[in-house]
Amino acid sequence: MTSGVEASPGAPLSVSQTAIEHFRDALAGALIESRSQEYNTARRVWNASVDKRPAWIAQCSGASDVVRSVQFARENQLVVAVRGGGHSVAGKSVCDGGLVIDLSMMKGVQVDPARRTVIAQPGLRLGELDRQTHVFGLATPLGIVSDTGVAGLTLGGGLGWLNGKYGLACDNLLSAQVVTADGGVLTASAVENDDLLWGLRGGGGNFGIVTSFEFSLHPVESILGGMVVHPISAARDMLRFYSEFSTTCPDEFSTMAALVTGPDASVAAAMVGCCLGPTEIADNIVRPLRAFGTPSADLFNCMSFVEMQSLLDGAFPDGNGHYWKASYLRRLRADAIEVLVEQAIAKPSPLSIIALQHMHGAAARVSGRATAFPHRQEQFDCLILAQWSDPAEANRNIEWARETWERLQPFLDPSVYVNNLGDEGDARIRAAYGANYGQLVSLKMKFDPTNCFRQNQNVVPRA
Ligand SMILES: Cc1cc2nc3c(=O)[nH]c(=O)nc-3n(C[C@H](O)[C@H](O)[C@H](O)COP(=O)(O)OP(=O)(O)OC[C@H]3O[C@@H](n4cnc5c(N)ncnc54)[C@H](O)[C@@H]3O)c2cc1C
């Protein structure tokens, strides 16, 4: 008996039942098929508008399961998708037909407080890792929403509240264990396969499947964090203030501005920030931001880093449809502010957000060639986040996001953060990898010449 699956679009392939049973027996984790009870839950990813139907989902329990999954996919020429936290908005961690190599059950953490390092498995979410390192008063830079996957975020770069002081997530990646397309297991570090480590720091999942990450840790005790909210009538002034203020912030204070929907259901403007250091010093740093205008709410407070990391979780609940457009914005000019505010007022869904996440300090001081993440200047990650709960509203919201991005074109840089890309074609992928694209192609030809790992923002292996 055989099972019909899609090897690549238009190329159906049959896999014998014996091969499937051998694979199932070899796995320590579960093998889910379309007839399994768990299938619909297992194929679901964070973006509810992604609806793909893989032939199998291998829920891996460790590196040996990942090796077996890669071998099974190779032997049967299957399309492979790799799932960490499942938060790719473009839906890259699930495929139609083929095999999902699901790492989400792999959640081991080993903190070494003396060396200030942590070894983390790829199924961890940000909050799960933060909680473990926080016990020791330590943290590694990740993102700003606690539910996001550590794996995909780190491999694309990882921009979060510690970027000013300690750099991006990928800058803190010391080593990784990687299962390659031929089923081998490699260590990537400064002394072994350093070219692969370079590629993992911003080149996404193109070169293999990371089964463990080793990060450096930093002391992060209490912080002054939170947000101020202003009515939309003050948004233009607030953004003008923010465009200047953000550029004066010391490394300790990382910020973002956002146009959101306030608690009273009206469109509002907010400035959010996380300031490290003793309260008296942090108070002084944050004061001008809190003193600006007449906020309708000031939610700044002393809190733990773990609390800070989940401050924005409520804005991204499970189960909604999403469509994101993004580009870097080097300077926030008055004419760009006008478009941002007009488009925020016009957003068809109260759940949608326009955000400007500031990258500065340590993250901006690394050379653009030192890691695969190329965009190393002080700038804003301009994100147009369309979000809706009713599937019938999808088109209207997607249209709004596209229109907003189009209207912002005169002000946006062509470059884009790879983890914010949708299915936008080769030119945008090249814009995401920037000047490092050629070096990434060479690495791809070395580690994955047949492009086994292509369900990502793909670097195509060609001479
Ligand atoms: C609510 C939300 C908040 C976000 N906030 C931030 C933020 O603050 N900062 C930021 O930088 N980004 C942020 N992002 C973007 C985020 O970095 C990406 O969505 C990222 O892909 C999430 O990683 P994941 O493991 O959850 O994704 P997945 O969907 O599991 O994977 C994403 C990609 O990485 C590949 N991949 C995953 N795990 C591995 C692995 N172990 N080995 C090889 N390849 C792998 C997948 O194949 C896929 O191509 C946010 C996204 C969301 C949805």
Uncertain stretches: 6-12
Helical stretch count? Answer: 15
Tell me the count of domains: 3
Structure classification: alpha+beta
Residue share in β-strands: 25-35%
* Net shape: globular
Find the count of extended strands (DSSP E, 2+ residues): 21
Q: Give a quick account of the main beta sheet: strands, pairing sense, barrel closure.
A: 8 strands, antiparallel
Give the integer mean of the pLDDT values: 95
Q: Can you give the helix content as a percent range?
A: 25-40%
Q: From the coordinates shown, what is the CATH architecture of the largest domain?
A: 3-Layer(aba) Sandwich
Q: Whole-number radius of gyration?
A: 22 Å
Textual characterization of the structure:
The strands form five sheets. Strands 14, 15, 16, 17, 18, 19, 20 and 21 form an eight-stranded antiparallel beta sheet that branches. The protein has a five-stranded antiparallel beta sheet with strand order 7-8-12-10-11. It has a four-stranded mixed beta sheet with strand order 3-4-6-5. Helices cover 30% and strands 26% of the residues. It is an alpha+beta fold and 463 residues long. It has three domains: 2-102, Uridine Diphospho-n-acetylenolpyruvylglucosamine Reductase, domain 2; 109-219, Uridine Diphospho-n-acetylenolpyruvylglucosamine Reductase, domain 3; 222-420, 3-Layer(aba) Sandwich (Vanillyl-alcohol Oxidase, Chain A, domain 3). It has helices at residues 17-26, 39-43, 63-75, 126-134, 150-156, 163-166, 194-200, 235-248, 279-291, 305-309, 334-345, 361-365, 394-408, 426-433, 437-447, and strands at residues 2-8, 11-16, 30-33, 56-59, 80-83, 99-102, 109-112, 117-120, 138-139, 173-179, 185-188, 209-216, 218-219, 222-231, 253-261, 267-276, 297-298, 301-304, 321-329, 353-359, 379-388. Mean pLDDT is 95; it is low at 6-12. Bound molecules: flavin-adenine dinucleotide. Flavin-adenine dinucleotide (FAD) is lined by residues 46, 81-89, 92-93, 103, 122, 143-145, 148-149, 151-153, 155-160, 204-205, 209-210, 316, 419, 455-456.
